[in-house]
Amino acid sequence: MLHTHTTPASRRRRFREQLASGSLLRIPGAINPYSARLIQEHGFDAAYLSGAVLAADLGLPDIGLTTSTEIAARAQQVVRVTDLPVLIDADTGFGEPMNAARTLQLMEDAGLAGLHLEDQVNPKRCGHLDGKTVVPREDMVRRLRAVVDARRDPDFLLMARTDARAVEGLPAAIDRAKAYVDAGADAIFPEALADEAEFEAFRKALDVPLLANMTEFGKGRLLDTTTLENLGYNIALYPVTLFRLAMGAVEDGLRTLAAEGTQESLLPRMQTRSRLYEVLGYEDYNTFDSAVFDFTLPPGN
Questions:
Q1: Within a 10 A sphere around the Cβ of 155, how many other Cβ atoms?
Q2: Helices (H) and strands (E) in the chain — how many of each?
Q3: Largest Cα–Cα distance of the chain, in whole Å?
């Protein structure tokens, strides 16, 4: 009810332990707090907050228009309802190194388990679109060092994302990733790799946890968990899957409602009222409410 049963510190330690276990973590992107509850209930290892999803939820494209305080506020709402570790997309840090440092502390305060910063210029764009531009490697290193210095909880995970594969080529992207680890990054997110050979090349070059972005309609094909495990990856990320499914269902529903004048034919596809109440824990709230308002004080009190 109302809150989680664990602390941010315990979830951060758990996330570190999971990454060190050698097993592949499956991390879907949450749309909102409710979907984070469902991610936990269905047995996933952690939840993710995508910058693209947060922007789209506000009716904005993923080009750096959101702010650090906006995403921290949404993060706090999500973290409140799940005992899973939550990783967030912090874009470029929302400004210069000092802004990135503030962003990290905002995300710590929100209760997240970690964040990733990318090496694109600001304004950025979706990692699977053409026309990206990356900052000089030295600029990203300064950004990371500022964030490392600002971190107060050593268990808070700092992941560096490089978008250099599409701009400078694979060898340059690997060199950048090595420099980012040297600057203090705990893990690496190589964005928009083309095929399994490129995933393998990153794994051979680095001995830190690696994230595989399995976003739909992107530059590379979707790899299953067995393949990613065999490649030695630590995280399989599904950042926009739930958002795309949900919005596809919304559009189908609107078309049906407009055409038929009733939602009757849509009922079998809907989550039922009883299931909604089950996820939200209505019964627990009712029990708690009765315990507060329907009690009798013992004699003498």
A1: 18
A2: 13, 8
A3: 78
Residue 116 annotated to the active site? yes
pLDDT above 60 (res 257) = yes
pLDDT at 27 over 60: yes
Q: Which of 20-29, 82-91, 288-297 shows the lowest per-residue confidence on average (mean pLDDT)?
A: 288-297
Residues 6+ apart with CB under 8 A from 261: none
Q: What is the pLDDT, as a whole number, of residue 173?
A: 97
> Binning pLDDT at 50, 70 and 90, where does residue 137 land?
very high
Phi/psi for 109 (5° steps) reads -65, -30
Given 89, 108, 119, 155, the catalytic residue: 89
Q: Which of 143, 213, 238, 244 is catalytic?
A: 213
Catalytic residue among 102, 143, 191, 238: 191
89 catalytically annotated: yes
Known catalytic residue at 126: yes
Is residue 13 predicted with pLDDT exceeding 70? yes
Backbone φ and ψ for 130, nearest 5 degrees, come out as: -75, 165
196 catalytic, yes or no?
no
Q: Is 16 a catalytic residue?
A: no
Q: What is the pLDDT of residue 283?
A: 85
User: Count of residues for the chain?
Assistant: 301
Query: Rounded CA gap, 201 and 211, in Å?
Result: 13
Q: Which residues contact 52 (CB under 8 A, 6 or more apart)?
A: 62, 89, 126, 239, 240
Q: Is 104 left (phi over 0), alpha (psi -120 to 50) or beta?
A: alpha
Tell me the whole-structure pTM to 2 decimals: 0.93
Q: Is 118 in the active site? A: yes
Q: Out of 118, 119, 155, 186, which one is annotated catalytic? A: 118
Question: Mean pLDDT in the chain?
Answer: 93
Report phi then psi at 159, rounded to 5. -110, 140
pLDDT at residue 206 above 60?
A: yes
